[in-house]
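Postdoc handover notes: sequence design on the structure in folder B. Input tokens:
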């Protein structure tokens, strides 16, 4: 039998540091290597515990900055902000705080504290209900455990725009004669309002007398067209007392108030109980804390009123609930008639002294109040007399959408008053 000799040689005459490895890459435990083998310096594998990457939450806000553009006054706009966890660990939203101007608001389905797992998101909605042309600003401050940016801010702003510009022109004429018909609600809820009328009778009559107005005042109720007292004039023995007693009509009347219908019956040329003077301005003043239940619609009553008095000399005024906290129903039907006849509508919740002063000093009587044809933006109003800026004092009355001249000494009559303003409409 032949013997085969196998010779093994190493290149370069070098001895290996180790020669046999197990399937995990570590040296085999042989007597020759067990105590002398060192770990390789740069092995292509992990040795010992693996170096695992740390997981972190990351927050994404989109958009984080927003501008409400071209929002008209009385209109709204809104947008959503996405809050997302784009990391690989739980995102904890600890708290947030929202600072904003009154026209801005925020809504969310979630309220802090809450958590978002990786890939989860939620939305926050910001809304602008524009009421003016003043800039609105909002900021949402968010506190979280997000890596690197635990404090975040979402910002937004906007500014309302006017619908357009307008100029109203009035021919200033002195009206020295005024017939005034008060229609006072005599239902069970009106005692306080009647007391307010009566308590301010003196200032109302004094305003008329001092202005030199030749007035005739009659009073009826919302359920009876018959005058409750004789006509009150500057020549009455006690016009203040007469007016105070006349408007105190009691609270036993019908709860189905019909102020327009009673006015129509009282002023009817054939069967009416009141005969307005042909050369006097005629003002109907309804005082009620409820809506009108008259059988005809507003246009039918409007046509009747213009059949007995030319348009520029007839005015229907409403002192009614405007929905601001008192009264038993908004006086919508009375307000419509006031708008049709360029009259005023005043808040029955307001102090009675102010309401009666406004009526007594109205342009329908002595030439100082000018109702605007469109709803004005108060900060944009300018007043001119014959094309020149009006030098006297004036103010804007929001409730009646009127310009009130507080100094008419420079007006002599038969002059043109121009009022320019930016206007708004309902969306």
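Designed sequence:
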């Amino acid at each position: 039998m032949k013997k085969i000799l196998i010779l093994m040689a190493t290149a370069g005459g070098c001895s290996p540091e180790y020669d046999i490895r197990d399937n995990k890459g570590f040296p085999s435990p042989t007597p020759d290597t067990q105590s002398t083998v060192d770990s390789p310096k740069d092995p292509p594998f992990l040795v010992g515990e693996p170096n695992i990457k740390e997981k972190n939450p990351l927050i994404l806000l989109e958009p984080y900055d927003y501008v409400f553009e071209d929002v008209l006054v009385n209109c709204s706009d809104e947008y959503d902000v996405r809050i997302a966890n784009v990391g690989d660990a739980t995102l904890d939203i600890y708290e947030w705080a929202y600072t904003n101007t009154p026209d801005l608001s925020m809504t969310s389905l979630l309220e802090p504290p809450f958590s978002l797992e990786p890939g989860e998101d939620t939305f926050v909605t910001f809304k602008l209900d524009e009421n003016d042309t003043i800039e609105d600003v909002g900021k949402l401050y968010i506190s979280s455990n997000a890596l690197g940016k635990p404090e975040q801010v979402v910002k937004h702003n906007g500014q309302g725009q006017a619908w357009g510009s307008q100029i109203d022109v009035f021919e200033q004429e002195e009206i020295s004669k005024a017939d005034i018909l008060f229609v006072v609600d005599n239902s069970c809820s009106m005692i306080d309002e009647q007391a307010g009328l009566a308590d301010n009778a003196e200032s109302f009559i004094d305003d008329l007398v001092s202005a030199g107005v030749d007035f005739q005042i009659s009073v009826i109720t919302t359920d009876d067209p018959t005058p409750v007292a004789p006509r009150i004039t500057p020549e009455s023995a006690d016009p203040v007392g007469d007016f105070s007693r006349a408007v105190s009509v009691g609270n036993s009347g019908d709860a189905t108030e019909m102020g327009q219908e009673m006015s129509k019956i009282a002023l009817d040329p054939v069967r009416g109980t009141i005969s307005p003077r042909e050369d006097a301005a005629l003002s109907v003043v309804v005082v009620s804390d409820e809506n009108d239940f008259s059988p005809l619609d507003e246009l039918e009553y409007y046509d009747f009123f213009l059949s007995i008095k030319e348009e520029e000399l007839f005015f229907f005024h409403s002192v009614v609930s405007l929905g601001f906290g008192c009264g038993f129903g908004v006086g919508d039907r009375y307000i419509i008639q006031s708008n049709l006849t360029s009259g005023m509508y005043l808040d029955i919740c307001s102090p009675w002294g102010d309401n009666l002063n406004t009526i007594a000093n109205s342009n329908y009587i002595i030439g100082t109040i000018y109702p605007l044809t469109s709803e004005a933006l108060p900060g944009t109003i300018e007043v001119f007399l014959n094309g020149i800026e009006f030098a006297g004092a004036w103010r804007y009355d929001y409730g009646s959408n009127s310009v009130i001249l507080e100094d008419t000494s420079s007006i002599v009559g038969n002059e043109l008053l121009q009022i320019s303003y930016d206007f708004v409409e309902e969306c």
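Context for whoever picks this up: The two ends are 113 Å apart (CA to CA). Don't rerun without checking with the PI first.
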